[in-house]
Specification:
This protein is mainly α. The chain has six helices and no strands. Helix content is 42%, strand content 0%. Helix 2 packs across helix 6 and helix 4 (100-108) packs across helix 6 (127-141). The longest helix has 19 residues, at 16-34.
Length: 142
């Protein structure tokens, strides 16, 4: 065997198809990493237990407002949208639609998410508790 000047002998050049698959896999991985962590799927049964912290101020029954508004239909609804409840100006003027991400952010630290809200609850520190609560609200309020 003669020395060809290459550091190693190439058996076969990499196929274009293989290159494309690698580029596609790498692009998909990078895109997934760039979008950030997805919210974990919650457990509605565990969320019912977490909701006990909310029960003093909120009802799941439509039209039954307490210190806080009824949460009937909250998921997918507009923040400040329950009739008959007097919201803070911040909540009433917000353009928040309650989805998994907005509810998670609000329940993490309500006053940080929406400065001026009158909700005095400090928030739920555990991500799992928030995910469970969201699953419960979705199940019970739709």
């Amino acid at each position: 065997m003669e020395f060809s000047g290459k550091p190693w002998p190439l058996k076969k050049p990499m196929r274009t198809q293989t290159k494309m698959r690698r580029v596609l896999a790498l692009t998909t991985l990078l895109a997934a990493m760039a979008t950030g962590p997805a919210l974990a799927a919650g457990d509605a049964a565990a969320g019912e237990k977490v909701f006990k912290k909310c029960k003093a101020c909120h009802s799941l029954e439509e039209g039954k407002n307490k210190v806080g508004p009824s949460l009937a239909g909250v998921m997918g609804g507009q923040a400040g949208g329950v009739e008959g409840y007097k919201y803070s100006k911040a909540m009433a003027n917000s353009e928040v639609t309650w989805d998994d991400a907005s509810m998670d952010a609000f329940m993490t630290k309500p006053k940080k998410f929406l400065p001026g809200t009158k909700m005095s609850f400090p928030g739920l520190k555990k991500e799992a508790d928030r995910a469970d609560l969201i699953a419960y609200l979705k199940q019970e309020t739709q």
